[in-house]
Structure formats: C-alpha cells, structure tokens
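Recall that a protein's primary structure is simply its ordered list of amino acids. Everything else, from secondary elements to tertiary packing, is in principle encoded there. The following example makes that idea concrete.
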Amino acid sequence: MDTEDHQESAGKPGHHSPDGHSDGHGEHGHGHGHEGWFHQLRYLKHAPRLWTAPINEALVKLIAPGPGERVLDVGAGMGPAVLAASALVGDGRVFAVDPSPLMRGIMRFRRTSRRLGDRVVVFKGKAEDLPLESASVDAAWSINCVHHWGDDEKACRELGRVVRPGGRLVLLDEQFSDPTHPRHDSYDSSRRGQPGFFHEIDTDRLARLLEEAGFGIDRCGDERVGGAPVKLVWAVRRSDATDSQ
C-alpha cells in the first residue's frame, strides 16, 4: 500500500475520514452515486479527449501554480489539470481529489508513468467533504464538476476551510449549450435535468456562497477559456477571514 492509499484508508488526522464518500460518479466522473459503473464506462469512452483536455491546461495557466505551492483539483477525473500543475509546483504538491475509484486508479497510473512520486497526492473525496487540513492549499480549482455538487453551500464552506488566506480559487463549468462551443454538436438538449447532465451553473449564487465562506470575488460570469465559453468564478480567500467551519 503506497502513502496515498494509506492516507485514503485512514482518513486525515483531525478531520473527517474520506471512507464514507460515495464511489459513484456522474457521466463525467464527479457525481454522488446515482450513476454507477455503467457511466464510468461511458466516461472511459471519452478517455482520448479527456486525457489532455485543453480546458484543463488553460485553467492551470490561468491560476498559475508556482514553485513550492500546494494546490488542489476538486473532481480531478483523469488528471489532465493535475499533470499540468505538477510541472509547475517544483517541490510543492498537487492534491487530486475524486470520488471515483476508477478515476483515482487512472491518476495513480499516470503519476507512476510520469515518475512524479509524492508531487501528486491522490485522495478519495468530494467537494462537500475535503480530506485536507484547514488553510493547507495555496490554490484550488474545480473544472466541469460544480453541476455535480449535491450541496453547494457545504462545498463552498469546505473550500473556504482548506484554502489559506490570500489563496486563490477558480470554479469553472463549460457551456456546452452555447453554439460557439467546439463540442456543441454533441450536446443533447433532450437530457436536460437528467443525472450527469451539464446544466449551467449559477455563478451569482456561487459568488454569494463563496463570499459567505470568506472569499473576495474578483471575476464572476460568462468568459472564454481555452477557446470555449464557460461559467467562471474567480475568488481569493480574504486575509481577515476565519475558518468557515
């Protein structure tokens, strides 16, 4: 058992054990158990595209992890953003959190194949219950996962807990319903409202919840990242904020 597997099984000292989290996930790997293994196989069908997703690499450039920083990917999936960030943090750490055992297994394989060692740490977890210490990360992000959150209020509080004062946060979901999106043709409007469907997130609500969790909001709304239309919230943890839990 490697270090990350041990941490995953034992839980984090002083906080919730991640063992109680659902192993299920939505169509894109980050839901809460209602989709099951059938949709994990559907997810794998898209593996060649998701292996090096441009939107992930563009977001990492946007958040710009620096040498020595500890950064967090919430709902990391197959890890394209994790690998991009690992090239920038030097002797820092990239924490990859995902509820799916399949996705975590793929990330461990990629970590081993890249010989990244303990630069990448893989955890079982979800946005509402992050297996990390308070004020332990310099930056965090979540890509195409916010629409899967079961409790966005709790998720924002958790992000407020783990991001240090002055740390930065980006929440981003692609707008596949936008005709200008490169993958708009594969968008199926008939599935609207079904589990795993990419509904548009409410950035104003997220901004309000993040403000309540101790963040200041720098940007909020419709943008283009990596050549695609997105809903985005960029926030910075206030230096005067206290632990939100």
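Residues 27 and 71 are 25 Å apart (CA to CA). The longest helix spans residues 101-113.
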